[in-house]
Amino acid sequence: MSKIVVFGCNGQMGFAICEGFCRLGYDVVGADKLDSHGSNVPWLNFISCDIRHPAEIQKAFDEHKISATVSALPYFLNERVADISMRNNIPYFDLGGKVNVSEKIHQLSETFGVSCFTDLGLAPGWVNIVAEEAYQKLSLIGDVETIAMYVGGLPQEMNPPLNYKVTWSTEGLLNEYRDDCLVLKDGEIVTEKGMDDVYGLTIPVSSFENFKFETFNTSGGASHILESMQKRGVQNCKYQTIRHPGHRDAVKMMLDSMDYYEVGKVIEAQSVEGKDFVIMHVWASLHNIPVQYEYNKIVFADEEFSAMQLCTAFPLVTAVNQFLSQGFPEHKKLTYEDIRYGKFNAMVNALIGIDE
């Protein structure tokens, strides 16, 4: 079986990615600064690696015959891992989330002629793959006019006023809230403010039927799907985050009046105990034809991983496995259009343990 190297294997998402590959039978090399799991996870081949030094990154490729590189590192470290991976002619994948970093990695892919797929977590990632499927289905009927993507990682128990559980980097969360957001609006890609454009949303999913949420702009979730949709004539495409009602106003008030780092401390201190769940909602419509596409999914934490870990790590694992087992297309910059949705959907559900 192929061997995968996962940089950032000690993080919440990195370790879940390693577990996902292990479940599919891959040999997994975990690279990180310290070995937090080694003695407890005999299937993980650990390499001590300080990402600040290129020679340390190169060590993974010198010591192992690697078939694919995965970065589960913070976005600002991805480019240096991608560069060395591609210099070794090894396909590169990551969780992404920062548009300008992904663009630089795409340029490296062109320079070295090596495949890469950035932005493969939950949002961006899984929800964009569903949005692509929405486009493919509706485009058989007519001209797709609007595609909207929504994702929320939420606590199962409420704790006003924030009603939020920290399941990943607080710094990353606040960057998504503060940064400007790209949206496709009336055929043009434009910039809107983070946390603006607030809506109410009712999700008709099983036990949460008629449960009301709020949505608002956050950056990064749309990723490179905007350009793809624009080229195919879609007029409107956007991504928004889902939260329990009241969260947006409480955080916005703090960001407008407090130091950025102090806001992060408050969010961490107010984080809800207990398990989380993830909601995905995708909606699409046609131009002048009363036909719509709607997709709703809810995933709960299991005994081993949070819902956010399941929904971020396992879509990436599924996509990497698809390309390694079925081959890479000739073009090197891989996009959500390259995913074979039926097989992807079946495998990611199986990894998470969802029956559909």
Outline the structure in words:
α1 links the parallel β1 and β2. The strands form 3 sheets. This protein has a 6-stranded parallel β-sheet with strand order 3-2-1-4-5-6, sandwiched between helices. The protein is an alpha/beta fold and 356 residues long. It folds into 2 domains: 3-118, NAD(P)-binding Rossmann-like Domain (Rossmann fold), CATH 3.40.50; 126-305, Dihydrodipicolinate Reductase, domain 2 (2-Layer Sandwich), CATH 3.30.360.10. The longest helix is centred in the last third of the chain and has 20 residues, at 307-326. It contains 11 helices and 14 strands.
The helicity comes to: 25-40%
CATH topology of the largest domain: Dihydrodipicolinate Reductase, domain 2
Q: State the helix count.
A: 11
Look at the structure and give the mean pLDDT: 92
The name of the CATH superfamily of the largest domain reads Dihydrodipicolinate Reductase, domain 2
Specify the overall morphology: globular
Key traits:
single chain; 356 residues; Dihydrodipicolinate Reductase, domain 2; 2 domains; 6-stranded parallel sheet; 6-stranded mixed sheet; 11 helices; globular
